[in-house]
Design goal:
The protein is an alpha/beta fold and about 350 residues long. About 25% of the residues lie in helices and about 15% in strands. It is built from 9 helices and 13 strands. α3 crosses α4.
Length: about 350
């Protein structure tokens, strides 16, 4: 069965094609609460992950990302409205599409689950890649689907370029370039984890590299070059979560951005984005899915515009199917050894 609806008509009177969402048996429902975050394309992906699996995802942090389904499966919209021309983003219609998709297809969870979720958004003052107005639209979108502003935080006061922001690693704060991690004397990972977990974190501890686990991503679903996944993903498993103790730990998914996949910067994002030291001290298992470039995605971004198909932002989207099964697997295990 297929439901077809007019997804979007912007105020410029441009109208866009219909999107067909195929109703299917949706796998990868973990039943365990977790949080997500990401930067750049990973920020858009984190928001898609949150909205699609809203029942289980209880918090989302997005650094330089826009509202759910912003691109409407159109690269042109992604490159313009969703990056540099936020005045062309109609939040009201994106909210309506969210409710309609849930009601007519069931391929995303009910937006009602957004109530009580923690939302943390960030836009660097010197980010000239994703306009701060796009991030502001993400904030408005979340209020439109039921987020309480008391659970939300928008940081737009740091002189950061388009990058993952740390307080101890990376390029100068205003530099835009590889590995797209900038030292701004601002610890984004710590701020967002504290907000998402709803508590003051214990001080950071040294994170042994031996606690980083490499695992095959291909076991989790359809896997070919067009899907855009690297062969292996990574996870940081804190010392306190090992030896059968993983079920007592929090679970977090962290998405890298474009040009931050292993083929570009090896494991630099996994090692230096800033999550692991906080994870070690606070018993948070951090899953790092890894993307891969292809002909339609030459920079190894996550799919937030539809290169894997028009249902990319839902549970039947090829990438989110894999993520759902990945989280289900990790969330059900008592140790990491069986996942390698």
């Amino acid at each position: 069965m297929c439901v077809i609806y007019d997804t979007y008509k912007m105020s410029t009177a441009r109208s866009f094609s219909f999107i067909c969402l195929v109703l299917a048996v949706v796998g990868g429902v973990s039943g365990r609460e977790y949080t997500v975050s990401g930067v750049s394309s990973g920020a858009f992906m984190a928001i898609q992950n949150h909205v699609a699996y809203n029942k289980d995802v209880v918090g989302v942090a997005a650094i330089a990302g826009g509202p759910f389904f912003c691109a409407q499966a159109k690269l042109e919209i992604a490159l313009h409205a969703c990056m540099v021309e936020p005045e062309f983003i109609s939040v009201e219609e994106l909210v309506a599409v969210t409710y309609s998709t849930y009601a007519t297809t069931g391929t995303i969870d009910s937006p009602a689950y957004t109530a009580g979720d923690k939302i943390w958004l960030f836009s660097g003052v010197q980010d000239h890649k994703v306009n701060s107005g796009v991030v502001a639209k993400a904030y408005t979108y979340y209020t439109g689907i039921g987020a309480d502003e008391s659970d939300m935080e928008l940081r737009n006061d740091i002189q950061a370029a388009h990058a993952m922001v740390t307080d101890n690693f990376g390029n100068d704060c205003t530099y835009f370039g590889s590995p797209y991690i900038d030292n701004c004397q601002f610890d984004a990972a710590g701020h967002l984890l504290s907000h998402l977990l709803g508590k003051e974190l214990k001080p950071r501890e040294k994170a042994p590299e031996s606690n980083i686990v490499s695992f095959s991503q291909s076991k989790y679903g359809i896997f070919n070059e067009s899907v855009g996944f690297a062969e292996n993903g990574y996870a940081y498993v804190p010392t306190g979560c090992q030896n059968g103790n993983m079920q007592s730990c929090d679970l977090h998914v962290a998405y890298h951005g474009c040009l931050q996949a292993p083929e570009n910067i090896n494991t630099t994002f996994v090692l230096h984005a800033g999550y692991n030291e906080w994870a070690e001290a606070n018993n948070v298992v951090v899953i790092y899915p890894q993307a891969k470039s292809n002909a339609l995605n030459p920079e190894g971004c996550w799919d937030w515009w539809g290169f894997t198909g028009p249902a990319y932002a839902s549970k039947v989207g090829l990438q989110l199917q894999v993520i759902g099964k990945m989280v289900e697997d990790w969330g059900s295990r008592s140790s990491s050894s069986s996942l390698i």
